[in-house]
Design goal:
The chain is α/β, with parallel strands linked by helices. It has 4 domains: about 240 residues, Acetylglutamate kinase-like (Carbamate kinase, 3-Layer(aba) Sandwich); about 160 residues, VC0802-like (2-Layer Sandwich), CATH 3.30.2130; about 240 residues, Alanine racemase (TIM Barrel); about 110 residues, Beta Barrel (Lyase, Ornithine Decarboxylase, Chain A, domain 1). The protein has 29 helices and 35 strands. The strands form 6 sheets. Strands 3-4-2-1-7-10-11-9 form an 8-stranded mixed beta sheet, with helices on both faces. Strands 19, 29, 30, 31, 32, 33, 34 and 35 form an 8-stranded mixed beta sheet that branches. Strand 16 and strand 17 form a beta hairpin. Helix 4 runs antiparallel to helix 5 and helix 26 runs parallel beside helix 27. The longest helix has 25 residues. The termini are far apart. The structure holds ligand LLP. The site of ligand LLP has 22 residues, from helix 28.
Length: about 850
Amino acid sequence: MTMADSTPAASPWVVLKFGGTSVSSVANWKNIAAVVRDRLAEGLRPVIVHSALSGITDRLEQLLAVSLDSHNTLGNEAQAVMNQIEQRHRDLARDLGVTPSQDLEEQFKRLRQIAAGIALVGEVSERLRARVMAQGELMATRLGAAFLASQGLDVQWVDARTVLKAEQRRNANLRSSYLSATCNYEPDLELQRRWSTQGTVFISQGFIASDEQGDTVLLGRGGSDTSGSYFAAKLGARRLEIWTDVPGMFSANPRSVPTARLLRALEYDEAQEIASSGAKVLHPRCIMPVKQYGIPLYVYATQTPKLEGTVITTHGGNVAAQVKAVTIKKNITLVSMETVGMWHSVGFLADAFQVFKDHGLSIDLVSTSETSVTVSLDPAANTLDKSTLDALMVDLGKLCRVEVIGPCAAVSLVGRNIRAILHRLGDALELFEEQKIYLVTQAANDLNITFVIDEGQGDRLVSRLHDIAIQKMTADRVLGPTWEELYGPKDKAAIDLKQWWHDRRNDLISLGREHSAAFVYDRATLTAKAKALRALPGIEGVFYALKANWHPDILKLFAEQGLGFECVSRAEVEHVMKTLPKLDRQKILFTPNFAPRAEYEWGVQQGIWVTLDNLHPLKAWPEVFKGRDVFIRIDTGYGRGHHDKVRTAGVHSKFGVPLFEMDELERLVKASGARVVGLHAHTGSGVFTVDNWKSVGDTLTALTQRFKDVRIVDLGGGLGVPERLGQQGVQLSEFGETLAALKAAHPQLTLWIEPGRYLVAEAGVLLAQVTQLKGKGEVNYVGVATGMNSLIRPALYGAHHEIVNLTRLDDLATEVFNVVGPICESGDQLGNDRLLPPTQEGDVLLIATAGAYGRAMSSTYNLREPAIEVLI
Ligand code: LLP
């Protein structure tokens, strides 16, 4: 065989293979149509290969069985199965808005005739079995072709049996040549020429082919992947895309290990190994043909077409040794053979293996010692009933002592150069202290190590091995996000600190329905946050920056917790005074920026703390501050924070007196007769490194050498809160240690902080009812009752807020949406590319972490009132 005549990179062909689930719903078919259009837009020629509707292959098998059981005429049961098969297709046709074609009607009829024939004859040949089983794909592709044509695509339906030809295999029995055939896949220039019509989309069947006599043959269960691969090789395709119901290959089965990571890139051999050792995403046989011609293989999920998926190529991912997957195969039977005579004896293994061959059993793993040999029999490759095993035992018993052990599980660690990482697996291997290991093998290709243990222990072991060998590794080019991160808010909540709103779900849904848009704040969380800050060591004053949220009830709650208030305008100060008439004036800190003279005059008369953050007030109106205590805001020279717009120090920011103006400041202070009792700095908002407050503390305390009256150092606010899943907020314990150390070094100084976001962000959520849904091009939109008029942060800073569908919190999130509001600007988006469960009008969405700078920055833009506020 020669290499492909054209290199994949230059080829116009792309083969798209869709599995059973992928072709069984309208939503998926819409995605398929979008993918096809995308590929056409890329200038490619798509060839679709797809499976039967999900469950139909099983139904066909059932049809064969019950037809055989019928006597002479098709019995009721067989009729019922046949009706179900037909109805499934009619239902999908209706949902897709297409009428079953004449060909499809013909197929239904023929299938009934064949079933009746089987009933009459009372037997079914392998040849006929293959013909019946092939109907699933033949029927489904008729519907697929009709739907794509209804979408305006130029579609041509092709019978795969005219393209894929089974190979004659030596030693193949009749059964396997009809039901588990392999095909020739050399580049087929004639096919490429025949299909060269521009713009046409070809659609054909997976799973089926034909043999030399023109009989229908099958490629074995899961054979559709292999069909895709054969088509790709024959066409010399640019790539093969396998679309299934999981978005790629994972480092473990995500359904049992939710922390399984997406494997972004693999080599063919690794993918083959993972597929062969138990993962169900790809059929192991499909890799060889694309590997041989260097055709990249992509794995994607049809229901979430935007997720990145896995790409399998020659160079794959990392060259470094790395465990990439932990897989499990169950229902393994071990046969252990023991004999003292084996030592140095010639031909024992040959004799023993001959017995397995005679019984038609294929051996998977082997391990030998001087006195024993243990082999495993994989159920996927063997039909192991009791009588087969008994017969095997009898014959082996003539050679040695035999023991059958099972059911077992084979747990494999898979990855390149696995031998090189054995030493790192120390922790993982300790697990086996409690487990009896029956067999350990290390594959000759250095791609896997397998442990065979009792089946009951298998799953537990997989998840522990996965924790040790993969989960704690940091994400890289190969290891992508976890399944939990990609899907399912339910699981998210479990790994993240469980958010309060999970427990208040029903109340929130009612509130969302009642008001259609509402900010809801949780008193318990507000209180807990205030208490946590009050408990910080080294800190004597916590001044809440009420610009984040000035709801009067929140101010009252914080006052009860002993917090002071940081205000940036006269109106904010007056709001605090009005809300809390009994509040000690020394608990109000006024930090205006570029405010007019009058505001300072007013401020200093109120008996509140006033901060100057420019030289101008001291230069231009020194008399205002004569004999007064003031704070000075210092620009420490560097800004920090989640976005440029919220970094409030450094040359590009308008805040604070820069360090190079300290001499002038000292002079002006003296000249004005003011007393500097406090120094302040706030470098920005949404800061995660505790280092920030340490260096602010160092800078400010050093300045107390110049300003001898300073008693208070205010380190500012800015404590970041996690906005994305898995992100860590500022660690309060670490923050506390920094503050305590600073205080210990300067016991004469009083330390203050003035956070806003930290106290309120997580305590608040924005609820918004779904108004409309639409799909436009590739993008699906969920419209909700409020948008940037309530929460402008995504539009202004590209800020991320988690969004969940509260109404359907328990459903798997499988669709990607842009969540948008009703405001007349394209920027009116609350979240892009968000995974949500299938969502409907009237559902209540929850936009998380909206307690800070949400309502506070809202507007009546478009004369739409922002969401109302409720405390619970
Ligand atoms: N102190 C001063 C002097 C401030 O300017 C600010 C916030 C704070 C304290 C409180 O910062 P916090 O702890 O909340 O991070 N609208 C932006 C945030 C702007 C913050 C402005 N200054 C946002 O939504 O992210």
